[in-house]
Amino acid sequence: MTVHDQSTAERKTVARDGFSATIDLPDFAIAQAKSQKITRIIMVALILIIWLVFLGLAAFGNMEFSTSAIQATFVSAVLLILYAFTSVKQKRDKTWTGTIVDKKIVMKRRRNHDSDHSYIQTEKHHVLFIRRDDTLKTVEWDLANREDLYNFYEVSDRIKHHARFMFNEKQDKSRDSQTLCINCGRFSERGQEKCRFCKLPLLQ
After folding, report:
1. Per residue in 82-129, pLDDT tens?
2. What's the per-residue H, E or C state across 134-199?
3. 158-161 vs 96-113, strand pairing mode
4. DSSP characters for 68-129?
5. Closest CA to 167 of 152, 182, 154, 155
6. What is the pLDDT of residues 168-185, one digit of tens each?
7. Nearest Cα to 100, choosing from 150, 154, 144?
8. Under a CB-based contact definition with an 8 Å cutoff, are residues 169 and 159 in contact?
9. What stretch of H or E contains 45?
10. Contact indicator for 71, 79 with CB cutoff of 8 Å
11. H or E segment at 128?
12. 3 state DSSP class of 63
């Protein structure tokens, strides 16, 4: 066995009972920058499509040009406001640690609409309650219908939320047969170094 093979084997067999330093690899910063760039491109494309649609209605439909321009401006402004709000929220997000103090399955009601009428739909949500170390406040992490994630975490588990990533890292991973990707939320077999879906390093 070569030195490289031995070091790889050691990384795969080490007891995973602490927060991983793998998060410091440049892969994560690169992935976030790429995601932000894609979001900006999509936003520009959506605004262009909106203007093309409304200008098309003015040119080939019954809508006045001034009316179509006003409506296109309004819809574009709403999208830009939502984009700005999301961007600010992401920039304000920071890394923190906490403890899962409770977990519950909650039935939530949501109003849906179809072509004829609106109706109330009841949905099952898997919710974790996490007490943050920095603020001492208990926050809810709604996993929606992700029963696999709900079963992955246990009450009293120590977790770490990494800034601008959706899924939280467990501190004690020694009993897990799978590793959760904090980027895409998919599971990979224990011992794999990279997520088989998004290809980012896994926090072992």
Report:
1. 999 999 998 999 999 999 999 999 999 988 887 778 889 899 999 999
2. CCCCEEEEECCCCHHHHHHCCCCCEEEECCCCCCCEECCCCCCCEEECCCCCCEEECCCCECCCCC
3. antiparallel
4. HHHHHHHHHHHHHHHHHHHHHHHHH---EEEEEEEEEEEEEEEEEE-SS-EEEEEEEEEEEE
5. 182
6. 999 999 999 999 999 999
7. 154
8. yes
9. helix 26-60
10. no
11. strand 118-132
12. coil
pLDDT in tens, 127-157: 999 999 999 999 999 999 999 999 999 999 9
* Contact predicate 137/131, CB 8 Å: yes
Q: What is the DSSP letter of 200?
A: P
pTM > 0.70 = yes
Q: Which residue has the tokens 């700005």?
A: 84
CA angle 132, 172, 124 (to 5 degrees): 60
Q: What does DSSP assign to residue 53? A: H
Q: Which tokens go with 115?
A: 């072509």
Q: Which two tokens stand for residue 39?
A: 């979001």
Beta strand residue intervals within 58-95, DSSP E:
none
